[in-house]
């Protein structure tokens, strides 16, 4: 939990300099924003480089930004003004669709349309491990225990990868071959949510490894959107699930004690597909990125847009936010 985050409802104009808010676009630009003023404080223009920005991730210590750009991943220093990456990870042969930092910043995991998941050593710049997923990877998240990965793919599978055993331990296909677009795991490791191309969400309770019940226990499923689902994300306090869609909305689902998912709010304002979202550390705010070229900051309590970020010239397809302790 953040003691000083994006702001507070009582003092919404307050700017916390420790807030890192970044968006990426098909215009090939990465933009850093002052969360409350809406001013773009830095642009990584990447002039002469080809490839759209697919995903962004901020390291836990707020030092590094990882940008998945077509088939490679650029690592930038956040405190620097340089447009030149300090590391470039090359090795994927297809679009990189997922990127996430290890909690202690030792490694980075990526997933790609080339059907592989790779773990990169941030100290040496080399590949530590390479997993053959067998189908184009759409998303990868790291379990809070830092010892497992959960991936989802175009073939409709959700896989659990055990890093200590170096193998795939589980393969779920909740809707047959319907592609699974996004996966998200609770910060306390209690549940997993996945969303598919038909707008449906599936929820599993994650049991302790010593429990008698199966490790992943299917508990519910629900129709989140009637159109393509692009992202699902559990809030840090595990009280809400945000789902983004081609229907131009973001839906906020409250999570009950017995894993009931109830539609709490519909965030309306974007004019085109909403591609990505990121919660503030205290779960009080949500940032979204859309094909309408705009990113928005929403207040969860009211469901209203409290700031809009204008500047991209094409679809804004990814965002990253880190306003917690570094």
TrEMBL record:
The record's Gene3D superfamilies line, in alphabetical order, gives: YVTN repeat-like/Quinoprotein amine dehydrogenase
Which Pfam families would you find in this protein's record? WD40
Q: Among the record's GO biological process terms, what is one?
A: TORC2 signaling
The yes or no answer to whether the keyword Repeat is present is yes
Question: Single GO cellular component annotation?
Answer: TORC1 complex
- The answer on whether this UniProt entry bears the keyword Cell division reads no
Q: Which UniProt keywords apply?
A: Cytoplasm, Repeat, WD repeat
Identify the main location. cytoplasm
Where in the cell is the protein located? Answer: Cytoplasm
Looking up InterPro entries in the UniProt record yields:
MLST8 (IPR037588), WD40/YVTN_repeat-like_dom_sf (IPR015943), WD40_PAC1 (IPR020472), WD40_repeat_CS (IPR019775), WD40_repeat_dom_sf (IPR036322), WD40_rpt (IPR001680)
Task: Enumerate the WD repeat regions by residue range.
Answer: 89-130, 222-255, 267-308
- Its family? Belongs to the WD repeat LST8 family.
The protein in question is named Protein LST8 homolog
